[in-house]
Structures are given as structure tokens and as C-alpha cells.
Write a structure and sequence with these properties.
The complex is a heterodimer of chains A (410) and B (133). With 410 residues, chain A is an alpha+beta fold. Chain A is built from 18 helices and 10 strands. The mean pLDDT of chain A is 84. The longest helix of chain B is centred in the first third of the chain and has 11 residues. The chains are: A alpha+beta (410), B alpha+beta (133). The structure holds iron/sulfur cluster (2 copies).
């Protein structure tokens, strides 16, 4: 924010980059009038980890595991989008059974992530008992993940052209047990989150994102759907096996009959999505055909095949937080020529501005948390100079470089 | 909130805690001494929760079967595997391994497999327990 020279009654407070309520580094500068937020400016770019750069000396199979580490919570979404990109570039056909298994994994991840979020949201408004309750439920899903993948967090389950582990008949009872547990306990967390007076007071009418703003700022995922925009990659572009499944857009008015776009609606949205995910997993378990798991079981052969490919591909996947996009370009070498990641939080940061304006300082954590931000995934490049953020083009980079040389010569 | 959570919180007070106290029920005053006592058979370890089937733990390497084809080195995302030129075998640094089991999948002679050992923390990344060869 530029400092103004007029006499003003407002004052500025910076929050972040490291702030206990936000956990991940993001810098917010607020213009405050008493308790009310007049204006806010968001600055990103504090945790750039050069992941895309690190991919330049790795082959696509190795990048899968690098992509997994972009985010700890979406450790399935990133390799999924990357694999979709590679498959699009190399025209790889994925066996049908693998497509269903991929959906199951994606939905398990969505449930885990949304339950985690519910706990964090409760923690942000000071209900740590609810945090522990929801995370106890999350633990069941983590156990299921471990059972299906062998790892709790970085699942390592997806591969290019298929999936690495099957779900056999004798595994089904364990899966249904976990899903039933969720169904039985769903009412409990629904009651705590949606009927509680205090939670209502803190979340209803707070952090409103209007439909217009959500459209204009390109919000994605639950954040935009809670403002009644029907946007969901799973339905818009059918990938994996989503085309064969019975799913529909979820918006909060299904439960309440109206959409306000506030924090409360975003809570409803995520709770409804948990329910939808359970339903999708059950459909998959029902409909799953028999067949192969991967298109090419011999990995060296697959790598050789990918080495010959020249082309580009885009992978889009509906991550728990919204649409994640990966772009890959292969030029007939071991490593891809480019790999570009656009994580959903990138789109969900700007909606913070209309959400936060006019609210109170104490609402910052819950409003920020209500979009389920994930900074480390988002940061691809960030340039901040004199408090201004801008993109650098080639000419500008050149100019800066010349300037620096001149400075050094002086 | 107090109200909707209160019954749950109260009933929780009388339930057994979820946490499995591993390796000991209470923090021993001296860990080294405690482990020594366990080794001598004087104290007992509170057992960990068993790992599920298909768990990805410390890699087991069957040296005899390995042909030294180096495919595992090619796919390992962490550069955790080193090739030993003289005897044409491999050496795995578990300290770098990310337990993706990609090397298991690629190995043509199936000489690698994931074990179920998970207590792998060590202050020395080159400790004997963290090198498989
Ligand atoms: S499990 Fe993965 S990281 Fe570990 S040695 Fe094998 S390929 Fe490398
Ligand atoms: S892939 Fe298997 S056979 Fe080849 S070097 Fe590695 S361990 Fe040995």
C-alpha cells in the first residue's frame, strides 16, 4: 500500500509474513479504522521453493514424487494433475479400473482435507475441543490411506498411465468400515458446526464473497461454490472416471435454501462435500470394472516412450481447495522442458480482499482460514520491490540487470 | 459452543485415551538407562501399533539376486541409491529414501522389497542401520 500524505483517521497494521494465526507465510497489510478493516493488501512470495526448477534434471517418474511434495495435504492432487498432463502430451490411455481407483484416492484425500480444515476453522475461532473431535475422525481416514497406499501422507499411489496399488475384494470390509464410521459421525459434526449458536455468531454474515466478486476474481473450489457459482472440474471436464459417476454441483443452498457467500456457507459447503465424496467412493466400489492397473507395466519402457514424445499437455484436477492446473512440455529429452504448476490457493487469495473489507480485526484468522489457504503450494514466483508487486518481463529483467551493473560500477 | 460439545467432552474423561504410549507408558527419567534395561530384559517395551499389510518401511535388499542393472538408480527420485562399481551391486542410503517403493516396482529380478521397520530416526545419516547393501 502506498503511504498517503493526507491527514487520516486510519492507521496501517501489517500482519505476517509469519503470523501465528496463519501458519504459513503470507503478508497482509491492513488499513484499520478503529476495529474495522478499511482496506487490505495481500503480498505473496515468501516460500518459493524452486520445485519447478528442481524438475529439470528429473524424469517424469521422479517428478511424480517431487509433485507429491508440493503440498502435504494435497499429496495426491499434484501428481494426479501432473500425470494427466503427461498423459495428454503422450497420448497415454489409462485402463478403466485404474480410472476408478484414481477417483477413490482423490475422494479420500478430499475427505481428509476437508475434515482437517473443519478442525483448523474451529481452532481459529477458539474451539480446540472441536479441533480434536474432527481430527479424531480424520485419523480414521489417515488409517485408511495407510491401508490402501502404505504411507499416511505422501501416498505414492499414482503413476503415469495408471495406479500402483489395487483394491482387492478382501480390502473392501475395511474400507466400508471407515466410510460407515464417517456416515455415523457425520451428524455429530454437522450438529456442532451448523447448529451451535456461537459458531453461527462468528461465521454468519462474516467474510462475504458475492457471486460477482467470486466470478471476477476467478475463485475456485469450495470457496467459489459457497458463493453459488457452479464450477467443479470433476463435472465440467470429465476426467478419471468422474464422467461415469452420478455427481452434481454442490452449493450451500441444498441445505439452507439460500446462499450468502459467508464463512458459514463455506463451512456448510465443505461438510456437504464430505458427504458427496463418501457417496462417490461407494459408487466407485460398486461400479469398478476388472482390468489392468497400468497401461505400461514396464517402467523403463514407459520412460523410453516418454523420451520420444514431443508435445505439451495440460492436467486439470479438482483438488480439495479447487482446480489445480499443471502444464508440461516434453521435447524429447529425459526431463520435461517445462513444468508449470498453478495451485488453487493462488486464485483464492484475491477474494480475501472483498471478504476482509469492513470486517473486524478479530475476524481475520477465520476469514483467511475459510478459503483453506495453502501458501507453500501457491508460491511460484513473487517479486516485491518498494512495497509494489509486479510481474517482470524480459525487458524489465534486462533493465534491472543493467541498473544493478551500473550500481556496482559506481 | 460449551453446550453442544459438553456431553462429548465429559464422556471422553472416562474413556481410555486413544494414544498408544510407545515405547513406555511414562517418559523414563533416563532413556539410555531404560533402553539398557530393556536390552537386559528387566523392563518391557509397550508395543507399537502393528503396521498394516503393504506398509512401506525400511527396504529389504536381496543382494544375491541383484544383477546390477541400475534401473532402480534411474527411477529413484531421491538419489538414495548408489552403484558399487567393484562388485556390481547397489547401496541404499535410507536417510535419503522417501519410501516411494518405485525401486521395488522397477527391479526386474524382484530383489528389493519394503519391510515393516519404521523406527529409523538417527542423528547420523550414515549410521549402520540406515545403510542397506
Ligand atoms: S523407495 Fe523410492 S526413494 Fe527409497 S530407494 Fe526406492 S526409489 Fe529411492
Ligand atoms: S533394479 Fe534390482 S537388479 Fe537392478 S540394480 Fe537395482 S536392485 Fe539390482
Amino acid at each position: 500500500m502506498k503511504s498517503k500524505t493526507t491527514t487520516k483517521t486510519t492507521y496501517n497494521i501489517p500482519v505476517g509474513p509469519i503470523h501465528p494465526a496463519l501458519k504459513e507465510p503470507v503478508f497482509l497489510e491492513f488499513e484499520i479504522d478503529g476495529e474495522r478493516i478499511v482496506d487490505v493488501d495481500v503480498k505473496l512470495g515468501h516460500v518459493h521453493r524452486a520445485i519447478e526448477w528442481a524438475s529439470r534434471k528429473r524424469n517424469p517418474i521422479q517428478i511424480l514424487y517431487l509433485a507429491e511434495r508440493i503440498c502435504g495435504i494435497c499429496s495426491y492432487c499434484h501428481p494426479a494433475a501432473f500425470a494427466l498432463g503427461i498423459e495428454a502430451a503422450a497420448d497415454i490411455e489409462v485402463p478403466e479400473r485404474a480410472e476408478y481407483l484414481r477417483v477413490i484416492q482423490a475422494e479420500i484425500e478430499r475427505i481428509t482435507s476437508h475434515v482437517l480444515w473443519a478442525g483448523v476453522a474451529a481452532h481459529e475461532i477458539g474451539f480446540d475441543t472441536v479441533l480434536f473431535l474432527t481430527w479424531e475422525m480424520r485419523e480414521k481416514m489417515m488409517d485408511l490411506t495407510e491401508f490402501l497406499c502404505g504411507n499416511r501422507v505422501t501416498k505414492g499411489i499414482l503413476t503415469i498411465g495408471g495406479i500402483r496399488r489395487d483394491i482387492t475384494k478382501d480390502m473392501l470390509p475395511q474400507i466400508t468400515k471407515s466410510l460407515d464410521y464417517f456416515k455415523d459421525n457425520f451428524e455429530k459434526i454437522r450438529h456442532i458446526f451448523l447448529d451451535d449458536k456461537t459458531i453461527k455468531l462468528r461465521s454468519q454474515g462474516v467474510g462475504i464473497l458475492t457471486k460477482d466478486d467470486a466470478l471476477k476474481l476467478c475463485a475456485v473450489g469450495p470457496t467459489t461454490r459457497a458463493s453459488a457459482i457452479k464450477k467443479d472440474v470433476r463435472i465440467d471436464t470429465s476426467y478419471f472416471a468422474y464422467g461415469d459417476l452420478d455427481i452434481d454441483y454442490i452449493t450451500p443452498d441444498i441445505l439452507t435454501g439460500e446462499v450468502n457467500g459467508d464463512v458459514y456457507d463455506r463451512i456448510i459447503q465443505r461438510l456437504l462435500e464430505i458427504k458427496q465424496s463418501i457417496d462417490i467412493i461407494e459408487q466407485c466400489l460398486d461400479k469398478m470394472p476388472n482390468g489392468d492397473l497400468v497401461s505400461e507395466p514396464k517402467i523403463p519402457k514407459l520412460l523410453n516412450q516418454l523420451k520420444k514424445v514431443e508435445g505439451e499437455g495440460v492436467g486439470r484436477h479438482e483438488a480439495p481447495r479447487g482446480e489445480v492446473i499443471h502444464y508440461v512440455k516434453l521435447t524429447g529429452e529425459d526431463a520435461p522442458f517445462t513444468w508449470k504448476v498453478r495451485a488453487p490457493t493462488y486464485n483464492n487469495i484475491l477474494p480475501w480482499i472483498p471478504m476482509l473489507k469492513g470486517e473486524q480485526i478479530a475476524d481475520i484468522p477465520i476469514i483467511a482460514a475459510s478459503t483453506d489457504p495453502c501458501m507453500s503450494c501457491t508460491n511460484r514466483i513473487g517479486i516485491i520491490k518498494d512495497g509494489n508487486r509486479y510481474e517482470l518481463r524480459k525487458e524489465e529483467l534486462y533493465r534491472l540487470s543493467v541498473e544493478k551493473t551500473r550500481r556496482l560500477m559506481r | 459452543m460449551g453446550f453442544s460439545m459438553l456431553p462429548k467432552v465429559l464422556s471422553q474423561m472416562f474413556k481410555k485415551p486413544w494414544t498408544n504410549k510407545f515405547p513406555a507408558k511414562y517418559q523414563p527419567s533416563n532413556t539410555t538407562k531404560y533402553l539398557k534395561a530393556v536390552g537386559a530384559g528387566e523392563a518391557k517395551i509397550n508395543p507399537p501399533i502393528p503396521t498394516p499389510p503393504g506398509f512401506r518401511g525400511k527396504i529389504i535388499y536381496d543382494k544375491e539376486k541383484c544383477t546390477g542393472c541400475r534401473l532402480c538408480i534411474k527411477v529413484c527420485p531421491c538419489e538414495a541409491i548408489e552403484y558399487k562399481e567393484e562388485d556390481k551391486k547397489i547401496k541404499i542410503y535410507i536417510g535419503r529414501c522417501c519410501f516411494c517403493s518405485q525401486c521395488n516396482d522397477v527391479c526386474p529380478t524382484n530383489c528389493l522389497s519394503m519391510g515393516d521397520e519404521f523406527l529409523l530416526a538417527d542423528s547420523d545419516p550414515y549410521a549402520k542401520a540406515l545403510i542397506v547393501e
